[in-house]
UniProtKB/TrEMBL annotation:
Pathway: Carbohydrate biosynthesis. It comes from Castellaniella defragrans (Alcaligenes defragrans). This is Fructose-1,6-bisphosphatase class 1. The gene is fbp. InterPro entries: FBPase_C_dom, FBPase_class-1, FBPase_N, FBPtase. Substrate binds at D116, G117, S118, S119, N210, K276.
């Protein structure tokens, strides 16, 4: 079987379908190259001295793992010199990272969660990298990029994707023309298109949520999970299964593959806490992918991609996956 490479796919998208500009194509190539380097570091584990924590805390108030910081550095270095970016933003950086003056600048903005699923690094469970691409606003031309230039709704993303470092390393990508899955061929060093046009099953009987937070959930989520747990004699009429990997990348990858619903809802912990996941580099790129695969993504009653961001590290409730289940959860929120 001969597979198309990522490069071939992107060139076709640029040339024949105009789904991607030359600039964004090069940017995706660079990000995917950085993901190869991260994958390599991840797979070395203890042998590469990459396990364990650093003493530092990030802007989220989380203790940084060595791989959080290493992956962030790999992405920064890979993307600084390409000439197609104005600035970058990351879970692991307090504020935006502008392209240094000695490099040419472009019009794109890159956002990333360099290493998703940090709590799974040291226990050898799948982890990943998530990224999102926006364009700098036209009025920013000729002046320095500011944090506010990043605060655009997810509908403005021109590309998004993730790499998952699991039994196989895969890159799952959208440029707004469906969702494509590429498997890393380590011998050749290339990404091969093994999963063309990924579609998310509309129905499911599998949910993913951290049940230990149940007492903090909002009422509509409690109602839904309670109905799931009642099984086929309950109002949903099905026996549900549960999975929770605690790496969003791995949970979303499973859901894109065989359906399901993923929830990290808003909850009542800490004052004003909106949920755990971050809008700009977790919720938005994953919502773009899920919608492109025929699924839905909401924060409760509303669509995630329509949210006007107020801060770079803003948190948001996330409910995404198979269309029928997410619509049901959305209805429960509207009724509440
Ligand atoms: P990160 O490792 O990038 O900080 O993200 C972790 C997130 C996400 O990947 C996962 O779905 C969730 O945190 C798991 O949270 P719990 O440990 O609360 O289950
Ligand atoms: Mn983190
Ligand atoms: Mn994450
Ligand atoms: Mn992370």
């Amino acid at each position: 079987m001969k597979y198309k490479t990522l490069t071939q796919y992107l060139v076709e998208q640029q040339r024949e379908h105009k789904a991607v500009s030359a600039d964004v194509r090069l940017l995706i190539e660079t990000v995917s190259r950085a993901c190869k380097a991260i994958s390599h570091a991840v797979s070395k584990g203890a042998l590469g001295g990459v396990l364990g924590s650093l003493g530092t805390e990030n802007v989220q108030g989380e203790v940084q793992k060595k791989l959080d910081v290493l992956s962030n550095e790999i992405l920064l270095e890979a993307n600084e010199w390409g000439g197609n970016l104005a600035a970058m933003a990351s879970e692991e950086m307090q504020t935006i990272h502008r392209i240094p003056n000695h490099y040419p600048k472009g019009q794109n903005l890159l956002l990333f969660d360099p290493l998703d699923g940090s709590s799974n690094i040291d226990v050898n469970v799948s982890i990943g990298t998530i990224f999102s691409v926006l364009q700098a606003p036209a009025e920013a031309a000729g002046r320095e990029i500011a944090e506010a230039d990043f605060l655009q709704p997810g509908t403005r993303q021109v590309a998004a994707g993730y790499a998952v470092y699991g039994p196989q390393t895969m890159l799952v990508l959208t440029v707004g023309a469906g969702v494509m899955g590429f498997t890393l061929d380590r011998e050749m060093g290339s990404w091969l298109l093994t999963h063309e046009n990924i579609r998310l099953p509309e129905q499911t009987a599998e949910f993913a949520i951290n049940m230990s937070n149940m007492r903090h959930w909002e009422a509509p989520v409690r109602r839904y999970i309670d109905e799931c747990l009642q099984g086929e004699t309950g109002p949903l009429g099905k026996n549900y299964n549960m999975r929770w990997i605690a790496s969003m990348v791995a949970d979303v990858h499973r859901i894109l593959t065989r359906g399901g619903v993923f929830m990290y809802p808003r909850d009542a912990r800490a004052s004003g806490r909106k949920g755990k996941l971050r809008l700009m580099y977790e919720a938005n790129p994953m919502s773009f992918l899920v919608e492109q695969a025929g699924g839905r993504a909401v924060d409760g009653a509303g669509r995630i991609l329509d949210i006007q961001p107020e801060a770079l590290h803003q948190r948001v409730g996330v409910i995404l996956g198979s269309r029928e289940e997410v619509e049901r959860l959305q209805r429960y929120h509207q009724e509440a």
